[in-house]
Write a structure and sequence with these properties.
By secondary structure, this protein is of the alpha+beta class. The protein folds into 2 domains: 110 residues, no CATH class; 120 residues, no CATH class. The chain is 30% helix and 44% strand. The chain contains 7 helices and 13 strands. Strands 1, 2, 3, 4, 5, 12 and 13 form a 7-stranded antiparallel β-sheet that branches. A hairpin with a 5-residue loop joins strand 3 and strand 4. The longest helix has 21 residues. The protein starts with a helix and ends with a helix. About 2% of the residues have low confidence.
């Protein structure tokens, strides 16, 4: 796009914004807020490979803060949502008191580039099937199956013991946050062919059975809490700190 064309488009958007800002006084919410909801919704669906029952709402917008990319009050929910490089998030719920985005990228490229959130809370579920599929992509020779219960996580599969062939194993595992957006599964117990391994042999295979998984989320958020449910892991996220940015 030539510079003159870009300036013309910016002027058009600015003029349209003034009109919508004026018309906004005659509605309870404002046409400017409705327009931005539609633009954000389309950008989000364009960037998603799955978007089911997606709902997005904004609080009434101020025109001049919007020119600098400031949006106050945003909420989002979806039954299922997934980005191209990540898993499917289920029962997603998000709310933030504000966010700062690149308005030019949103208007001209129809995509979201968010610089920061203010007082943000995101929660969603990762199913045991999604996590099993992620482990399978990294370690297909395991033929893994992950089972999540409120009281425990069990990982089953096959492992090569003493280079004499693959035998079935089952491990109880602990899940924890390894970095801002990285999960780590660490075995706490290990049995092969139904037999518990003695400590020295368990220590030998502990590292091999430790698995880390970066959860792809193209927003400046970081993990704040993990909860186990029946067949799923519930993840809670908050606005990213400077330390969290360094860990990404």
């Amino acid at each position: 796009m030539r510079l003159t064309d870009r300036k013309t488009m910016i002027l058009t958007v600015f003029t349209l914004g003034i009109l919508l800002f004026s018309l906004g006084f005659f509605s309870s919410k404002g046409l400017l807020s409705t327009l931005m909801e539609n633009i954000l919704y389309k950008a989000l669906t364009n960037e998603s490979r799955v978007a089911e029952d997606l709902q997005l709402a904004l609080e009434p917008l101020g025109f001049f803060p919007l020119l600098s990319g400031e949006i106050r009050g945003v909420s989002l929910s979806a039954t299922r949502l997934a980005f191209p490089a990540g898993p499917v998030f289920e029962d997603l719920s998000f709310i933030a008191s504000g966010m700062k985005l690149d308005l030019g990228v949103l208007l001209f490229e129809r995509r979201l580039e968010i610089d920061r959130f203010e007082r943000a809370d995101l929660s969603f579920r990762l199913s045991e099937e999604e996590l099993t599929a992620a482990i399978s992509r990294d370690l297909p020779h395991w033929e893994p199956e992950l089972r999540i219960r409120p009281e425990e996580i069990i990982l089953a599969g096959r492992i090569n013991i003493w280079n004499r062939g693959f035998v079935p194993f089952q491990a109880s595992v602990r899940i924890e946050q390894a970095a801002a957006n990285i999960l780590r599964l660490t075995p706490t117990g290990f049995s092969v062919a139904g037999l518990d391994l003695f400590d020295k042999l368990f220590d030998k295979y502990r590292q091999e059975l430790t698995w880390e998984y970066p959860v792809h989320l193209p927003w400046p958020l970081q993990i704040s809490d993990l909860l186990l449910g029946q067949g799923f892991l519930e993840m809670n996220w908050k606005e990213q700190t400077m330390k969290g940015r360094d860990e990404r």
